[in-house]
Each structure stands twice: as C-alpha cells, then as structure tokens.
Design goal:
The chain contains ten helices and seven strands. It is of the alpha/beta class. It has a single domain, classed as Vaccinia Virus protein VP39 (Rossmann fold), CATH 3.40.50. α7 crosses α10. The two termini are about 30 Å apart. The structure holds S-adenosylmethionine (SAM). S-adenosylmethionine binds next to α1 and α4.
Length: about 230
C-alpha cells in the first residue's frame, strides 16, 4: 500500500490540472461511473453523506444532483490543494452550501461514531496507506444500516488486459505529463492500478472489516468496480 505522505505530495502537485487530466484520460467515461455510484446511493435515501478522498469534489457534486434526500454532504480529503479545487466550483454548483469541504484523513476520521447515513469513496481506497484501518474507520462513522459505496479500478476482462496495461503504462504518463507537467507522478497511477487486489479480494477485505451484504459490480469491461457494503442494523 502507498505511503500517505507520497500520496499527499502527488495530489498536491497535480491538483490544479486534476479535473482536466481525468476527463482526457477516461474520455469522460468517469462521469458515467460517478453517476451510477450516486444512483445506487440514492436508493437508501440518505440525509447525511460522507464523500471520502473527495479530491476536487466531482463525486460530491454528482451526489448533490442525484441524491434528492441529501441534506448535508461532507466532502473530505487530506490534501488541501485538491479541496481548494472543489471549493472553487461551489459558488456555481452548490449555491445552497449543502457540501462541506473539510480536511480529514480516512485513517483517522474527524467525525463522531454512527454519524453518517452513507459513505462514498471513489478512486481513493487504492491510495490508502492502511486499507483495513480505513475500512474500519468508515464502519465506525456509519450509522447502523448505513451503506458504503466504493468506486475503484480493478482487473479488467482478460481479452482487454494487455491493451489496457499498455495504455496505463505508456499512454497515460505521456498524455497526463503533457496536461499536468508531471509524467513521473502518473507512473504511480499505473502501478497502483495494476497492483490493486481483485474484486473478490476487496469484497473479502470489506467483510473482514465488519461490513455485511457485500457486493461488487464490474463496469466498462471491468476496468472499474462498484463495491457496496452495509453496516449491521
Ligand atoms: C484519485 S483522487 C480521487 C478524487 C475523487 N474522489 C475523484 O473521484 O475524482 C484520490 C484522492 O484521495 C485522497 N487521499 C488519499 N489518501 C487519503 C487519506 N488517507 N485521507 C484522505 N484523503 C486521501 C487524495 O488526496 C486524492 O485527492
């Protein structure tokens, strides 16, 4: 698992160009993945939602549009420059101030136990220095019956794997290097994706952390997966 300081430095360096690099690298398909995640969150009619590793807030803003029951969305990240990118969009995208951008570490959440109805984390679980600690923190702050929705890269279908890893290892660092000026930083992205556990392994980790009704759904040739899990009632 990656070292927290290195992860924070990496995101601080690319924060200003993060959104643009994301759109180009995924050809915009990440927008659809986030919408799917938000529509699953909406099923539970949560009022207080915590979006962890929120980065520039794309998931938080998608939740704001899609989850009509949401009264408060806490958008948390440990990287201030990434949060600032999210805050910059707030005047136009969240005039009522439903989203609260806050600094916080997933491994030591600055929140009361059993205080949120649903948690989302997108492309963040992979970056945690200690996944088990992060998952147990998520379970702690969820109310009984609350839901966790993890969007993360996973191993794609075998027929597309070779091409995909070539794209990750060669094309992404080159393209993102041009957009962000930090090609070396994006090599981290490729290695962290390739080395990430399978859907079944992440499901087992969720169960081990104490979650129930764990499911995983692959999307886009299983490039990414949506994992859902619940805290016992
Ligand atoms: C790839 S970005 C994802 C941002 C956003 N969720 C999205 O879908 O675009 C990963 C984010 O995780 C944050 N992060 C990594 N480890 C963290 C931790 N321990 N606590 C809080 N945030 C963390 C980074 O600062 C970064 O903003």
């Amino acid at each position: 698992m990656p070292e927290a300081k290195a992860v924070n430095d990496f995101f601080s360096r690319i924060a200003a160009r993060y959104d643009r690099a994301n759109r180009v690298m995924s050809s915009g398909i990440d927008i659809l993945w986030r919408r799917k995640q938000a529509s699953l969150v909406a099923h539970g009619n949560p009022q207080i939602i915590l979006d962890l590793a929120t980065g520039s807030g794309d998931v938080a803003y998608t939740l704001l549009r899609k989850v009509k029951s949401a009264e408060k969305i806490i958008a948390m990240d440990f990287c201030e420059p990434m949060l600032n990118q999210g805050r910059e969009k707030q005047a136009t995208k969240d005039p009522d101030g439903i989203i609260d951008f806050r600094v916080g570490d997933c491994l030591n959440l600055p929140l009361e136990s059993e205080s949120v109805d649903a948690i989302t984390i997108s492309f963040g679980l992979r970056n945690l220095e200690d996944r088990h600690k992060g998952l147990t923190e998520m379970l702690r702050v969820l109310k009984p019956g609350g839901s966790l929705h993890v969007l993360e890269f996973t191993q794609p279908w075998k027929p597309v794997r070779g091409l995909y890893y070539w794209y990750l290892g060669k094309v992404i660092p080159w393209v993102s290097g041009r957009i962000t000026g930090h090609a070396d930083a994006y090599e981290y992205l490729s290695t962290s994706i390739e080395g990430f556990p399978t859907k079944a392994e992440i499901s087992a980790e969720l169960a081990e952390a104490g979650f129930q009704n764990v499911t995983a759904m692959g999307m886009t040739a299983s490039i990414v997966a949506l994992h859902q899990a619940y805290k016992k009632q």
